[in-house]
Structures are given as structure tokens and as C-alpha cells.
Specification:
The complex is a heterotrimer.
Chain A lengths: L1 H31 L6 H17 L5 H22 L9 H23 L15 E4 L2 E4 H23 L1 H11 L1 H6 L4 H23 L10 H14 L4 H21 L5 H15 L14
Antiparallel strand pairs in A: 1-2
Chain B lengths: L1 H17 L13 E8 L10 H15 L7 E8 L4 H15 L3 E3 L4 H13 L4 E2 L16 E2 L5 H15 L5 E6 L2 H16 L6 E5 L7 H10 L3 E5 L2 H13 L5 E4 L6 H7 L8 E4 L12 E2 L7 H14 L8 H8 L2 H10 L5 H10 L3 E2 L4 E2 L17 E7 L5 E3 L4 E2 L8
Parallel strand pairs in B: 1-2, 1-3, 3-4, 4-5, 6-7, 6-8, 8-9, 9-10
Antiparallel strand pairs in B: 10-14, 11-15, 12-13, 14-15, 14-16
Helix pairs in contact in B: 2-10, 2-11, 3-4, 5-6, 7-8, 12-13
Chain C lengths: L6 H5 L5 H20 L2 H26 L7 H17 L5 H23 L4 H21 L9 E2 L4 E2 L2 E2 L3 H22 L3 H11 L1 H6 L4 H27 L1 E2 L6 H14 L5 H16 L9 H12 L8 H16 L3 H15 L3
Antiparallel strand pairs in C: 1-4, 2-3
The chains are: A mainly alpha, B alpha/beta, C mainly alpha.
């Protein structure tokens, strides 16, 4: 029983970082209808910028993280403005290839600037301390990630519900033409959505970096975040978070009770099963195309 | 008519293909010796790219000191991103366009195996593949000289030490799912069997996986008191950190791959203190058991000399003076020594003959010996079979635990 | 282009005498290629031809049927392992083993096609991606297939001749590639091809017209997997050593990239994509040896970036080329070619 609880707790812990990536993906999918393969690298570059601010410019950790988040916002906006928006009659495959291209450029840029050396980010909280509930451990960093994921989800929910910009974003996602006719600058709204998405991803990156940093650190969270977003339905924010926790918990239970070898891929088997039952994920309304 | 055409075409081909050979041997001119090497400068395996850059700086240093018998070493190294298809492309391009006399080191088991047959069929010497795979010596190849001690040996010595010297009874292995990890597992099981013991837990790590919580938990469940890590430094950092957060601290043990203590101390934020690793050189265990050495220790004369003369002079300003860079020097020292001994009339056959005569050659690594070619005897090409154990201190120094230990070769089971 | 007057003109292999002439010229060039170029370029041609097979097959699925696959490295792996295993364990001759490997991959393609019946867009992308990752994990567990330690390819013997060199292997690969490309081109002109296109353009409309969705969607997957399987079998003999880690996600992404950047929904497009991007993939590592540009990049690295990471410029260049192709021409390289042709045909108007 203790083992089971521990696995579920650890699953939730790792699910939180997947949730942050998934939230970022869902935001962009709703705005630009593209599975965003550059999500991981939109977080990677700001994380390395934070590292540089600390070690090259002697900033404090808080200042550096703040700088990284601002930079992420600008980076997201820039990518939408300079590249994605410029695509001529884009189809989904073309957009996927564009995000893959962007991914390579940003990854190349980070590896070029910082080399391949393994590093680790300084962090105010020790990455190795933990809380104990009975016999179940959760590390302080995991707890922080969990809180961050929930806070971000709730604030995104409130943002979409109550703020003018949030409502405009929702309107743009539902019907772009109508939104434009109502006087919403849909291009600008999309751009800001990309910025927010990059910022959310960067939070995940900054919380992963205190354990280990290298240019390829965001690939695994990206794929798992993508998987989580798909389970949740690709267009639903609570769905993405829920999907992320499902992925995390299933991975841990499977790794603990069945087979560690298949742990890394079990999430995808879950997806196929979920999608066979609900082809548009758990939380999205199934959309039937009119002929 | 048709025959003439074929002859002309074939003639053109021969001229094109072998035009570069001005001297009687490919890749050797009156003033130059061309040596090739591949390494991943990009991609997830890029940290191992420092091997080639170490070799490059070493060759530049040799050239600055007059070269070998009046010839300069010309080093051609290229990036294969750890992708065998690209390794083949680069090797064939350099071999056929420029003409390499020999190939040095080369990172990656799959990459090396992809070009092994090509190099062997063309009788091109290849010295010091930079991975400890059994594939290099099963079956032994006449022109392939191994330097890197097999991963199997690391596992044997570590397990033996844990059982006999530290009295550990529950030994677990964390292994990554490739040749490196599987050999570690096999070597450990081999020694455990000799002692009539069972493996407490064998935990596989998928290369792309970054979440080590289930792995740490499996180890804690098994209550292992010594854990051997056959994974990359990144996974070591993650496993150690996760286990520490679970208040689980067994005796961690690892291989030469994770034996760069200054680096490991940095990326584990100090958790690496007390970890025992195997090492194939870069320190002087003989007569120094119990002593502490640092990578910049002036007592390590050869290393200190290389630091000031090679690293400070020829390495890129953002290069790190670490084990990977140094290993790049160590892997090719036998090749350079062989070329030196072969004298001015350098040919490939002469180089092979000199390498075969090499006995207990000592460079940065342990003693290296080869023997006359015997297709049945892997030991004639295995090179180094000795390793020693070291323990990490709080400031990234190495506390020497054992003298050189000779490891046993376990043939591949069919 | 030219107006077609009846059905037979549409399905003809060569639309005009000029096309036939160029085709013969191309065949002649392919025949003499190994004599003109050095062995290294022959190796490159082999590598590119194998990629062409995969991408042409992928195009049947992605370009003609409108499905997406991020798991083709899985089929590629199945083909490679099946070919070697059939040859070493069951002692099949090479060509038979290769065809059987293709068929085994096709069976897996059919199976993957079943869940794909209900999925589309990102849902299908993640399901196929999962398939690709799972296949390599499963292969890594099977000791008979060498597990994680990998598998050596046996000698390649065809009708008593051993194909040991790149030049000998070249003819084998090129013949198979030409056959498969012509086959793919013909399929797109048949009932099957038209059904694929109908499904891509409007699958509900296609169904009401009597196109059997289940049959044709799974057939597209199986066909595409067959191509990848055959290519995988050939690739195993290019490398002569395979291990599961070679068939990773990057490879799947690379295949899709070649298909899309080449131009979907045509036969020439994917071929162009495979040639250009495989060439870049193999040759970009030499970017630092280009005179002037290489020096300038080194200088730039020393001043603002890092010298140890300078090779990563490859990624930046490759990514930028991808972005540029897709931004300026959604139909990829093939679209670029059509536009150029049109421009010169109507020049100076």
C-alpha cells in the first residue's frame, strides 16, 4: 500500500511538469491549430538565458528567472510574428514542419552558444530535500512544480473567463473571422497566445533545470506533454492537466508493478486505448465535420 | 569498342580514386601523415565530442614539437552526430578523397561497427575505439587495436570490491539499454555468481527517459546497499538526486564514463562525494593507495605537462579540462607511439608490426600490450585490461582505493 | 499543362515522347553513375535511394491519403530486423527475405491502420509516434534479435554473386528504387490511387460515393509500411550492423520532413525532398570547410558563441532551410519546380 501511494505521489510529481508542457501546447493548438514541436525549445532557450544571467552577468537567481520569463514571452511573440504568421496558405503538415524547423534552429543556437557540457542550475531550494507524509516522500522541488502547475492552470482559467484579452483569445479560437469582424486584432491575440505559451513552458524548464541541464533536456517532457494534451483532447486546459497526471501516474504504476523497460512508452499505449474509445480525447467535444 | 570504353572508364576511376597517394602508402607524404577520426559534435551524445578535440590538440602539440620523423600529423575529424549512416559517409569521403593513413579513436559502438568492415577489408589500421565494447575483439581483427578496457571489467572489479572489501550483500545494477549497460549487467552477474549471490535488482534505464523516480524507488524497495550505475552522467545526476530526495543513500558505484569527479560533483551539487568509480587511467594508483589526487595535481607529471603544453596552448578557450578531453589524448597515444617506432619508412604493415610488439606501454592510461595476430585470441588486440578504483572526495578529488587490477575477459555467449 | 483527351492518356507511363526521352537519359545516367563518380558518392547515392523508397511510400500515406505518420522509423526497423533474421535464422535468400520483410512491415502497417481509422491530425500523429517508440523498445527486449547489443548483417549474396562493395550494392538498390517508384506512380493512377485522393479531400463524401474507408485507409498504411520495410532491409546492409536505438524518433521526423518539404501529393516531390534533404543531412557537417564562410563562422563562434559547439550551425542551417521552403512554397520543392516551369513557359509575360 505504501508503495502504491508512493507511486501515485511520484506520478503526480512528474505529471506536474508534463502538465505545464501540455498547457503550453494546448494554448498554441487552440490559437494556431498546430501541434507545436518547438514548445520544448521555446522553454530551453530562456532557461539557458537564465543560466547565463546568473553565471556571466552575476544576477541573483530571482532576477535571472524573472528575466527568463520575460524573454520567453518575447520569444514566443517573436516566433509567431516573424515565422508562423508568414506561412502562405498553411496546412497542418506544413506548420508541423515549420515548428520542427524552428526547433532545430533554437536547439542549434543553444548548443552553439553553450556547448554540450552538462550543467545544473542553482536554485534557492535544495533539489534533494523532501517532505514526508507518513512513509510517502515528495521532494520539495516536485511540490513546488505541483503548486506551479495548479496555480498556472487556475490563473489561465480566470484569465480566459474574466479578462478582456482572455475573452478575446477565446473568441479568436472559436471563430477567427467573426472575431475579426467584431474588432479583435486576431493576429495580435495569436501572437500574445504564443508568448504566454512559451512562458508557461519556461516555468516547466526552470523547474527541471535544478536537477540537470543539457540542450536535449526538454525532449522527453515535450513528448509526454504532447501525449497528455492529446489524452485531454488537445483543446481543453483542464483536460491537458488531467491527461498529464494520468500519464504520470500510469507510467509510475506500470514501471513499479509491470515492467521498467516499457515505462517510457506505456503512455503511448494508454493514448491509443483512450483514443479508440474517445477519438477526440477525454475532454474535448467530438467535432463532427459537416459535409 | 565496348571494351575500350570500359577500360577508359576504369582507368579514369583508378586515377580519380587513388590520385592522392603520392607516397608509396596512402595518407603518408614526405611531410605529412593523415589521420582520420569521427565523433559526435552535435546531438545528444555531443559531450563525447571532446574526445576528438583532445586528440586534435595533442596532434597540434606533436607538430609544434617537430612532428614524427620530420612529418606532421594532419588530423581530419568530422561530426557524425552519433549516426552510423553519417559515420560511413564521412569515413568513405575522407578515405577516398584525401586518403587517411590510419583512423584514431572514434566514439560510439554502432558508429564504429558500421565502418569496421570497410576499414578492415581495405587493411587500414584503426587504433583505440572510444568505447569499451566486446565487439572490437570478437572476433579480433588484424588492423583494429582496442585501447579502452571493456565495460565488463569495470563491473567485475566494482562488484568484487563491494562484496569482499565493503561487505555489501545486496547489489543492484542500474543499466542503460545498450551495449554499455548490458555488459555492465553481465559482468556484475558473473562475479555475483562466483560468490553464490543473487542480483538484488536490475533496473533498466531508457536513454531518452528523464524521470528517474520509479528507478530510485525500485532500488529502495530492493533495499540494495550497493548500486552500480551503468548510465551516462546525466542519468547518474538524476538517479542520485531522486534517491537522495527519497532518503535512500546506498553506496553508489559507477564506471570510468562517470569518473570525471570535478564535473560530477558540479552537476550533482555535491552528492557525488563518496561515490566509487572504476578508472582506466589519468592517475597513479601504484604506491599511492589511500592518497588523494586532483586532476591538476602536480604529482601527475604527464597530466600536468599535458595541461600546460597541450590544453593551455592548443585547446579552444571554452574547452573543459576534463576526462573526456584527456581520454582523447590517451586513446591515440599507442597509435602515435607505433608510428614513431615504425620509423621514417612508414607503412601500414610496419605500423601493425610495431603495435604488435608493444608491451606494457604506459601513457595517460594503464599499461597497453598487444600480441601477434591470432584470430582465435581476443587478447592479442584488447590492449588495456587494467583498471583501478577511486572514490570521489567533497572537492572533486580522487581518493585512490586500489592498485591496478587486471580484469578477466568473458567471451560473448552465442 | 497539356490537355488530356482520354483516360488512357492519363494513365500512360510516359505522357509524351519527351518524357520518355528524359526517362531513358536518366536511366543511362543511373547506369553509368558509379563509373563517373568516386565510391563515396556511390555510397551517398545508395543512402539517398533508400530514403527515396521510404519517402515515396510515406507520400502514398501522407500526400495521397491525407493521414499523418510519425512512426515510420518503426516500419523501417521491422524491415531491417526481419530481413537479417530471415536470412540468418531461416536461411532465406536475400531478395525473398527482403520481400517477406516488406510484407511483415505491411502487416504491422495494417494493424496500425486500424486505430487510425478513427483518428486524425494530432491524435493520429501521437498514436503513430507511440508506435515508432514502442517498436524499438520491444525489439530491444528480444534476445533473438540481438537485444540492445545489436545485430550484424550476414554477407549479401544474390544468385551466387556476393555484393561486397558500394558499387555492386548500388545496382541492386537503384533497380529496386526505380521499380518501387514506378509502381507508386502507377498506383496513384488506378482506382486505388483515386480512392486515396478522395479520402484525403473529403472522406465522408468519398464514403457516400462508395469508397470503402476501412479497406483503403488500412491499405494505405500497409502499402506505406511495405515501402518502409523494404527500405529498412536495404539499410541494414548499408550499415551492416543495426541496433534499436538507430530507429529513433528523429528518424521518423526526418522522413516526414523529407516528404512534406519535397511536396506532398506528387511522385517527383518526395524524390526531390529525399535527394535535397538527405544530401544536406550528410554534407552539412562540412560547412566549416567552405572557404571564407567557414572562417567567418569560426570567427563568429570565437567572439560570440563557443568554438566547441560550432558544429551545431548545421542544425541552424538545416532548420532555416526547412522553414524557408515551407514559408515560401507550401507545396514544397515540387511547388517551386512547377512555378519555375510555368514562369519560363510563359516568359516574358
Amino acid at each position: 500500500m505504501i508503495d502504491f501511494l508512493q507511486m501515485v505521489t511520484s506520478g503526480i510529481a512528474v505529471g506536474s511538469s508534463y502538465a505545464l508542457m501540455a498547457l503550453g501546447m494546448v494554448l498554441i493548438y487552440k490559437a494556431s491549430e498546430v501541434p507545436n514541436f518547438v514548445q520544448g525549445e521555446m522553454a530551453l532557450l530562456p532557461v539557458f538565458i537564465a543560466y547565463m544571467l546568473i553565471y556571466t552577468y552575476g544576477q541573483s537567481v530571482f532576477m535571472a528567472f524573472f528575466g527568463a520569463l520575460i524573454f520567453a514571452m518575447l520569444l514566443g511573440c517573436f516566433l509567431e510574428f516573424a515565422v508562423v504568421r508568414r506561412a502562405k496558405n498553411p496546412n497542418i503538415l506544413g506548420l508541423i514542419i515549420i515548428t520542427i524547423g524552428l526547433e532545430m534552429v533554437l536547439l542549434g543556437f543553444v548548443s552553439w552558444k553553450f556547448g554540450a557540457d552538462q550543467r545544473v542550475m542553482p536554485f534557492p531550494i535544495s533539489s534533494y530535500s523532501s517532505f514526508m507524509f507518513g512513509n510517502v516522500y515528495i521532494s520539495t522541488l516536485d511540490l513546488l512544480t505541483l503548486v506551479a502547475a495548479l496555480v498556472i492552470m487556475i490563473s489561465l482559467f480566470l484569465f480566459f473567463r474574466f479578462s478582456k484579452l482572455g475573452v478575446a483569445m477565446k473568441a479568436t479560437q472559436q471563430n477567427e473571422t467573426a472575431a475579426r469582424l467584431m474588432g479583435i486584432r486576431t493576429n495580435r491575440v495569436k501572437m500574445i497566445t504564443w508568448g504566454i505559451s512559451a512562458t508557461v513552458g519556461t516555468v516547466a524548464g526552470l523547474l527541471l533545470a535544478p536537477v540537470f541541464m543539457e540542450p536535449y533536456m526538454m525532449w522527453d517532457p515535450l513528448l509526454k506533454g504532447f501525449a497528455a494534451a492529446v489524452i485531454g483532447g488537445m483543446t481543453s486546459l483542464p483536460g491537458a492537466v488531467f491527461g498529464a497526471y494520468i500519464v504520470g501516474i500510469v507510467e509510475h504504476l506500470f514501471g513499479g508493478y509491470v515492467s521498467m523497460e516499457y515505462k517510457a512508452v506505456v503512455a503511448f499505449a494508454v493514448i491509443v486505448i483512450v483514443l479508440c474509445i474517445k477519438p477526440s480525447g477525454l475532454f474535448a467535444r467530438h467535432y463532427v465535420k459537416k459535409v | 569498342m565496348k571494351n575500350t570504353l570500359w577500360t577508359v572508364l576504369l582507368g579514369a576511376l583508378l586515377v580519380l580514386g587513388f590520385a592522392s597517394a603520392g607516397y608509396s602508402e596512402v595518407g603518408v607524404t614526405d611531410t605529412e601523415i593523415h589521420i582520420g577520426q569521427w565523433s559526435p559534435q552535435t546531438g545528444p551524445a555531443a559531450p563525447w565530442g571532446a574526445v576528438a578535440r583532445g586528440t586534435d590538440a595533442y596532434f597540434k602539440w606533436i607538430n609544434a614539437n617537430g612532428g614524427i620523423h620530420g612529418r606532421k600529423l594532419v588530423h581530419h575529424y568530422f561530426d557524425d552526430a552519433y549516426n552510423p549512416a553519417k559515420t560511413i559517409a564521412g569515413v568513405k569521403q575522407l578515405q577516398e578523397q584525401t586518403g587517411m593513413f590510419a583512423w584514431a579513436s572514434g566514439v560510439g559502438t554502432a558508429c564504429g561497427l558500421a565502418v569496421r568492415d570497410y576499414l578492415m577489408e581495405n587493411k587500414i589500421p584503426w587504433v583505440g575505439p572510444s568505447s569499451g565494447s566486446r565487439h572490437w575483439v570478437t572476433p579480433p581483427q588484424k588492423y583494429l587495436f582496442n585501447v579502452y578496457p571493456l565495460y565488463l571489467g569495470d563491473a567485475q572489479v566494482l562488484t568484487e570490491y563491494a562484496i569482499t572489501k565493503m561487505g555489501k550483500t545486496k547489489i543492484a545494477v542500474v543499466y542503460q539499454e545498450d551495449d554499455y549497460g548490458k555488459q555492465g549487467l553481465e559482468g556484475t552477474e558473473y562475479v555475483l555468481k562466483k560468490h553464490g549471490m543473487e542480483l538484488a535488482a536490475g533496473v533498466p534505464v531508457s536513454l531518452s527517459d528523464t524521470d528517474m523516480r520509479p528507478h530510485a524507488m525500485r532500488l529502495r524497495q530492493a533495499d540494495a546497499d550497493a548500486v552500480l550505475l551503468f548510465v551516462t552522467p546525466g542519468h547518474v545526476a538524476r538517479v542520485l538526486g531522486t534517491a537522495k530526495a527519497m532518503n535512500y543513500e546506498p553506496q553508489w558505484m559507477s564506471t570510468t564514463t562517470c569518473g570525471d569527479f570535478p564535473l560530477m560533483i558540479a552537476i550533482t551539487k555535491g552528492l557525488y562525494e563518496g561515490v566509487i568509480t572504476a578508472s582506466f587511467g589519468l592517475a597513479q594508483p601504484t604506491g599511492n593507495v589511500g592518497g588523494v589526487e586532483h586532476i591538476n595535481d602536480p604529482r601527475l607529471e604527464r597530466l600536468a605537462k599535458f595541461k600546460t603544453e597541450i590544453f593551455d596552448e592548443f585547446a579552444a578557450p571554452d574547452e573543459r579540462w576534463g576526462y573526456t578531453f584527456n581520454a582523447g589524448i590517451g586513446f591515440v597515444e599507442p597509435l602515435v607511439e607505433g608510428i614513431r617506432r615504425a620509423g621514417r619508412d612508414l607503412t601500414r604493415e610496419k605500423l601493425v608490426k610495431e603495435l604488435e610488439k608493444m608491451k606494457d606501454f604506459k601513457g595517460l592510461l594503464g599499461r597497453i600490450s598487444y600480441g601477434p595476430y591470432d584470430p582465435e585470441d581476443p587478447l592479442c588486440r584488447i590492449g588495456q585490461q587494467e583498471i583501478f578504483l577511486q572514490q570521489c572526495t567533497a572537492d572533486g578529488g580522487s581518493k585512490i582505493l586500489t592498485d591496478w587490477q587486471t580484469t578477466e575477459f568473458i567471451p560473448m555467449s552465442e | 499543362m497539356d490537355m488530356k483527351r482520354n483516360y488512357y492518356e492519363d494513365i500512360r507511363l510516359f505522357s509524351s515522347g519527351v518524357t520518355f526521352f528524359w526517362f531513358v537519359l536518366l536511366m543511362a545516367f543511373l547506369f553509368f553513375y558509379p563509373f563517373i563518380f568516386k565510391n563515396y558518392y556511390v555510397y551517398m547515392a545508395n543512402y539517398i535511394a533508400i530514403n527515396i523508397i521510404v519517402v515515396v511510400g510515406l507520400n502514398l500515406l501522407v500526400g495521397y491519403t491525407g493521414q499523418i505518420s510519425l512512426g515510420h522509423a518503426g516500419f523501417y526497423a521491422i524491415g531491417a530486423y526481419a530481413t537479417i533474421t530471415l536470412m540468418t535464422v531461416a536461411h532465406f535468400p536475400f531478395l525473398l527475405a527482403l520481400v517477406c520483410a516488406g510484407l511483415i512491415a505491411a502487416v504491422f502497417g495494417f494493424l496500425l491502420g486500424l486505430p487510425a481509422l478513427r483518428l486524425e491530425g494530432p491524435y493520429l500523429a501521437i498514436a503513430t509516434l507511440g508506435f515508432g517508440l514502442t517498436i524499438t523498445t520491444v525489439i530491444g527486449r528480444i534476445e533473438m534479435l540481438g537485444g540492445r547489443q545489436g545485430l550484424h548483417a550476414p554477407d549479401l549474396i544474390i544468385m551466387g554473386h556476393q555484393l561486397g562493395t558500394d558499387r555492386q550494392f548500388y545496382y541492386l538498390v537503384v533497380i529496386i528504387t526505380v521499380l518501387l517508384v514506378v509502381f507508386a506512380r502507377n498506383i496513384t493512377k488506378t482506382k486505388v490511387g483515386r480512392a486515396f485522393i478522395a479520402i484525403r479531400d473529403a472522406h465522408i463524401a468519398a464514403e457516400t460515393m462508395g469508397v470503402n474507408l476501412v479497406l483503403y485507409k488500412t491499405m494505405a498504411f500497409a502499402l506505406s509500411a511495405f515501402y518502409a520495410g523494404v527500405a529498412g532491409g536495404l539499410y541494414a546492409f548499408v550499415l551492416r550492423f543495426i541496433e534499436p536505438e538507430l530507429f529513433n524518433l528523429f528518424l521518423s521526423v526526418f522522413f516526414l520532413t523529407m516528404a512534406v518539404a519535397g511536396g506532398l501529393g506528387s511522385v517527383m516531390g518526395p524524390i526531390a525532398g529525399a535527394i535535397v534533404l538527405s544530401f544536406l543531412d550528410l554534407q552539412l557537417r562540412n560547412i566549416l570547410s567552405i572557404p571564407y564562410i567557414g572562417d567567418w563562422l569560426r570567427h563568429l563562434s570565437a567572439s560570440y558563441f563557443s568554438l566547441t559547439g560550432v558544429s551545431n550551425i548545421q542544425f541552424i542551417v538545416f532548420g532555416s532551410i526547412l522553414i524557408a521552403i515551407m514559408l515560401f512554397e507550401p507545396l514544397g520543392l515540387y511547388g517551386l519546380w512547377i512555378r519555375m516551369k510555368k514562369y519560363w513557359r510563359t516568359w516574358p509575360f
